[in-house]
Each structure stands twice: as structure tokens, then as C-alpha cells.
């Protein structure tokens, strides 16, 4: 019987080609697939250049035999993670990919896929397999073998794991994604749409694994969409009689695509496609809300349905933001259609959230899930961006819930101030809403506490600071803190007093010490933070808005309030405001005159208040 010691000399560089092929054919008889020690001995002795030559064999009827022998040897080596991570395999990748593109037999194709599935477990090899031209071949092979369930499943697993392990930027796998998308967009009957479900899941997974481009929306040309999935998405969403599962898979893919493609280039080129996508997502949200019970112990549980709801919310949120930033400009007809859809969605969101708003004060342990926050986030964005009068009723219904969430900021899955604050800043620009925010929702006190939190200032979340300061500034400038005289409201504000309010109007017993609240916020607007902001040009604009808005609120609050502190407190307060004003006027010169005028009056008022 032939032994391994007899075969090893036949595999080395000094042996003839006839000896090498004979030795390779004999290996399975003397080396078992789990014999790690023997496999490593073979690996050390083998002439890998000859093995790669066998992989490149072509032009003869027997070439598939050589391919299969070489692949079987490599598959056996790849079972050992130590061997699979060596440079010898790296040198084989390009040849294996070429063999995958033009297999000499069905068995060679399957063996090539099986080998690559083992190799992609190594991040370095995974990058070589999915990047550039190699990734393009994978996309083409996937399309060519889509009708073979076995191969399609193997290729799906190969591509999915390869992209996950590779951890590469989106731009590196554009050829792969483009070929997959082109195949899925190719014409096919509506009766075959269900065949695409695994493919949509695959594309969605790939996009979620990838690192999106680092460039921001404002620095990329709007026509540089990296992978244009718009034709595929709109085609699927327009499919007659599409199943809920197909719709869900399509919207999940859309969500992943929008997250990975910050320019929204495809939607810019075809705004009508945006209308189809946003409308489908908005309708999907309403369908999900109809199946949920706002009075259940957990209104939106962490479940598959909640995940689907969150996906549709993300699509709507992303595309509404694109309109707000003027990245997308809708034609008049599409804009009118979206406004109607938006009105229906706001009404559905308001009706659902208003019920939770009523429950929350009575149930302090009511669980706030990620799904619920996704719904609240969309409602906030729509209310903040809408100019429609009919959303007023929704504002009164949702407002109390937004305040309760701010009060629970530290006990919810994700921070809520980044999306609650812009909404409150927008809606409290209306006097009636601002009054309700102060007297019925407890919103003024909640926002002051949030503005006082060190987190936003320390992290430089200037947008959050600006919006929080805008809310309390609205209250002060509009006089919403002043007790309302009987009969003061006119008929035009009755919509806010209708039965659409989530909570009954409370007795007007609110007492606000504007000056005391301003003094609590003042330490946050410190010279040290201004100095830090000055050292980073990227932060200058955001910091200017945040500090300026907060400082104007402090001055206005202390001007409209009554300073009740001791003389020493008054002196310290005036000095702190003056110090910040000096720094701010150097930071933003255009605001200097306004700030100095306000500060001058403030110092006078502080002195007068203490004297009294």
C-alpha cells in the first residue's frame, strides 16, 4: 500500500508534471479530510504554482478533471483555518474567481463556490473576493445561476458572508451591487415577483453591512448615486397585487439603500420615484398602526411587525429630510399628492399617539420601545416641517407625549431630544400651542431641565441645544407664561380647544420663575465652551446658533422675570452674562450690538430687582 511518505516527494517542485498529477490523484487514499497533521505536511511539500497551473488549464476535454483535482485539494486545505489564511490562498483567489466565471463543468462551479465560502471567513481574503472586478464576477455568476436553487442558495451565503467579513466601504463593492441590481431590475412577469424575496433580503443585508461614504450630503454632487436601485424599487412597489411580504422586503431594501447612499442621487434624477417610495412607506405605516393596539400593555412591542414599522418610518423620515434640505424638488403634481398622503399619515399618527399620551402619566412604567420611538420620530418630523392648518389638532394630541418622553430621557432606548426638540421649537411658535405647552403639558419646565443637562453641551450637540433654547425663547417672547385673561382667545384658535386635545385643559395655576430658570442655564453658556468651539471651524456655525439662541433666551427671561436673589448673586449673574456676551460678540461679530443692548438692560434690571 502506498503511504504518505511515498507520495510527498511526488508533489514538490522538483518532481515532473506526471509525478505531481499522480501524487494528487493518490492523496485521497492516504489522507483523510480531518487529518490535520497530514494535510499540513502535504501543504508544506506541495508545489502551489503547479496547483494554480491546473486551475488555469483549458482547451482540452479533460480540463475539468484537472480543475476538480485542484479544487478538492484546496477545499481540504481550507478546512484548516491556519492554512486558509496563508499567502498561498491569497495568490489563488483571482484564478478561482475566473474559474467561477467560466466553469468547465457543473461540479467545478459548485466546488469553486464551496471553496470560496470557506475562504471568505478570513477578512483579508473576503476583501479580495468581493472588491472590484472579482465582485462583479460574483454578481454575474449569481444572475446566471439564479434558476438553480442549490447554487443560488450557496452563492447567497457566499456573497452575504463575504461582504460582512470584508468590512469594506460601499464604493468598493459597487460593481457587485450594480450587477445584482441590474439582474433584479430585468423584465419579468408579476407572477414571478415572489421569486425575488431572497434576492431583496440579500441586497438589503449587503447594504446594511457596508460603511456608507464619509462625505456629507452637502459635499457630494446630487447625481452621483453609487448604486441606482430606484428602478427596482419603484417597479416592485408598483406591482399589482403585491404581497405584504414583498412590500416589506422592498421597503427594507429601500431603507438600507437610503442609509448607504447619502446623496439620494437616483431620487434627485427622478423625483416621481420618491413619491412612489414615500407614499408606499406612509401607507405601510398606517397599515401597521391599524394592527396595533395603543391600549395594549406594550403598544408597539419589539417584534417583526415593529421592525417592519421602523423600516417604513425610516424611509419616510429620510426622504422628508431630503425635501427639507432641498435635495429633492417635487413637481407640483407629485407635491400635491404627497401633501395629501402626509395629511392622512399625520392624522393616523396623531390618533394612535394621543391614546398613549393619555396613558403615560397614569402608567409611569409604560414601556417605551424602539418601535414606538420610530413612530414618534416620524410624527415629530412631519409636524415640524408641515405648514398645514389641519395638523393643529394632532399637535395638541401628540404634544403631551413629547413632553413625557423628554422627562423620561434617561430611561428610553435612544435619546429623544434630537427629534422632539425641533418639533416643539416649530409648534411653539404659535401662541396657543405655546400656552398649552406651558400650562397643560408641563413642557416649559421639561425643556428647561433638558437644556440644563450637561450631555448636550459636553458633546457639542449644538442643533439640540439650539432647538431646546428656541422652545423656551418662544414661550418668553410670546408671553405664553403670562396668565391668560378670560375671553382672550379669538375664534381662530378654537381648533386647539376642541375635543381633539389629548388631555383636558388644566387649571391655570402655573408659576414660572423666569429669572431663576435663566440663572440655572447660564453656567452652561461658559467662556470655556466658546473657546473650545473657536478651535474647531466645523463647530463654529452650530455653536454660534446654540450659544446665541441660549444667551438671547437668558437675557429675555431675566428681563421679563423678576430677579429675587441676593446682591452677591446678582453681581455674579451679571458678571457671568457679561463675560459670555464679550466672548460671544467676538465669536459672532454681527450679533454684538444686539447682545450688548440686551445685556445693558439686563444689568440694570438685575440691580433694580435686588434694590427692591
Summarize the structure.
Helices cover about 70% and strands about 0% of the residues. The protein is mainly alpha-helical.
Characterization of the model:
With 612 residues, this protein is mainly α. Among the domains are: 242-386, no CATH class; 513-612, Up-down Bundle (Monooxygenase), CATH 1.20.1280. Helix content is 69%, strand content 0%. The protein has helices at 4-11, 17-30, 36-45, 48-55, 63-78, 81-84, 87-101, 106-119, 123-130, 132-144, 149-166, 174-185, 197-209, 230-237, 244-260, 265-269, 271-291, 304-324, 332-362, 370-385, 392-407, 417-427, 431-439, 443-452, 454-459, 462-478, 514-521, 527-534, 537-560, 567-587, 592-611. Helix 15 (244-260) crosses helix 17, helix 15 crosses helix 18 and helix 21 packs across helix 24 (443-452). The longest helix has 31 residues, at 332-362.
Count of strand segments = 0
Radius of gyration: 33 Å
Main beta sheet, described? Answer: none
Looking at the structure, what is the overall shape? elongated
Give the uncertain stretches in residue-range form. Answer: 212-226, 490-509
Amino acid at each position: 500500500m502506498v503511504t504518505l511518505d511515498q507520495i510527498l516527494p511526488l508533489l514538490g517542485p522538483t518532481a515532473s508534471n506526471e509525478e505531481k498529477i499522480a501524487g494528487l490523484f493518490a492523496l485521497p487514499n492516504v489522507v483523510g479530510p480531518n487529518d490535520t497533521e497530514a494535510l499540513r505536511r502535504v501543504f508544506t511539500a506541495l508545489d502551489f504554482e503547479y496547483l494554480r497551473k491546473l486551475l488555469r488549464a483549458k482547451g482540452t476535454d479533460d480540463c475539468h478533471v484537472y480543475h476538480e483535482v485542484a479544487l478538492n485539494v484546496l477545499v481540504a486545505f481550507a478546512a484548516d483555518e491556519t492554512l486558509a489564511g496563508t499567502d498561498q490562498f491569497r495568490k489563488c483567489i483571482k484564478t478561482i474567481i475566473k474559474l467561477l466565471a467560466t466553469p468547465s463543468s457543473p461540479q467545478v462551479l459548485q466546488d469553486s463556490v464551496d471553496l470560496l465560502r470557506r475562504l471568505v471567513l478570513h477578512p483579508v481574503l473576503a476583501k479580495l473576493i468581493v472588491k472590484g472586478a472579482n465582485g462583479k464576477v460574483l454578481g454575474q455568476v449569481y444572475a446566471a445561476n439564479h434558476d438553480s436553487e442549490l447554487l443560488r442558495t450557496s452563492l447567497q451565503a457566499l456573497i452575504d458572508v463575504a461582504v460582512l467579513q470584508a468590512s469594506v466601504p460601499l464604493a468598493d463593492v459597487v460593481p457587485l451591487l450594480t450587477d445584482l441590481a441590474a439582474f433584479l431590475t430585468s423584465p419579468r412577469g408579476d407572477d414571478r415577483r415572489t421569486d425575488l424575496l431572497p434576492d431583496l433580503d440579500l441586497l438589503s443585508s449587503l447594504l446594511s453591512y457596508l460603511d456608507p461614504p464619509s462625505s456629507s450630503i452637502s459635499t457630494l454632487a446630487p447625481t452621483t448615486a453609487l448604486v441606482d436601485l430606484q428602478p427596482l424599487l419603484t417597479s416592485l412597489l408598483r406591482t399589482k397585487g403585491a404581497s405584504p411580504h414583498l412590500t416589506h422586503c422592498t421597503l427594507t431594501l429601500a431603507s438600507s439603500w437610503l442609509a448607504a447612499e447619502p446623496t439620494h442621487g437616483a431620487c434627485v434624477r427622478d423625483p416621481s420615484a420618491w413619491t412612489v417610495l414615500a407614499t408606499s412607506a406612509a401607507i405601510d405605516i398606517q397599515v401597521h398602526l391599524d394592527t396595533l393596539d395603543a391600549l395594549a400593555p406594550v403598544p408597539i412591542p419589539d417584534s417583526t411587525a415593529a421592525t417592519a414599522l421602523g423600516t417604513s418610518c425610516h424611509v419616510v423620515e429620510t426622504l422628508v429630510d431630503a425635501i427639507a434640505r432641498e435635495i429633492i424638488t417635487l413637481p407640483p403634481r407629485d407635491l400635491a399628492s404627497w401633501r395629501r398622503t402626509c395629511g392622512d399619515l399625520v392624522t393616523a399618527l396623531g390618533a394612535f399617539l394621543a391614546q398613549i399620551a393619555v396613558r403615560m402619566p397614569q402608567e409611569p412604567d409604560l414601556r417605551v420601545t424602539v418601535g414606538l420611538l420610530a413612530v414618534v420620530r416620524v410624527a415629530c418630523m412631519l409636524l415640524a416641517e408641515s405648514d398645514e392648518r389641519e395638523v393643529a389638532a394632532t399637535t395638541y394630541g401628540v404634544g403631551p407625549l413629547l413632553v413625557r418622553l423628554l422627562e423620561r430621557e434617561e430611561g428610553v432606548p435612544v435619546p429623544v431630544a434630537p427629534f422632539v426638540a425641533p418639533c416643539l421649537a416649530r409648534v411653539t411658535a404659535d401662541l396657543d400651542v405655546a400656552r398649552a405647552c406651558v400650562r397643560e403639558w408641563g413642557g416649559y419646565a421639561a425643556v428647561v431641565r433638558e437644556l440644563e443637562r450637561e450631555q448636550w453641551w459636553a458633546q457639542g450637540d449644538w442643533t439640540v441645544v439650539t432647538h431646546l433654547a428656541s422652545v423656551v425663547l418662544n414661550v418668553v417672547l410670546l408671553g405664553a407664561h403670562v396668565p391668560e385673561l378670560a375671553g382672550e382667545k379669538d375664534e381662530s384658535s378654537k381648533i386647539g380647544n376642541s375635543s381633539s386635545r389629548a388631555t383636558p385643559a388644566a387649571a391655570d395655576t402655573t408659576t414660572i420663575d423666569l429669572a431663576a430658570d435663566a440663572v440655572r442655564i447660564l453656567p452652561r453658556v461658559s467662556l470655556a465652551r466658546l473657546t473650545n468651539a473657536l478651535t474647531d471651524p466645523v463647530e463654529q456655525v452650530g455653536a454660534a446658533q446654540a450659544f446665541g439662541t441660549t444667551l438671547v433666551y437668558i437675557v429675555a427671561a431675566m428681563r421679563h422675570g423678576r430677579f429675587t436673589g441676593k446682591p452677591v448673586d446678582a453681581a455674579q449673574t451679571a458678571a457671568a452674562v457679561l463675560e459670555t456676551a464679550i466672548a460671544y460678540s467676538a465669536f459672532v461679530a454681527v450679533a454684538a450690538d444686539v447682545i450688548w443692548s440686551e445685556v445693558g438692560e439686563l444689568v440694570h434690571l438685575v440691580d433694580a430687582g435686588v434694590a427692591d
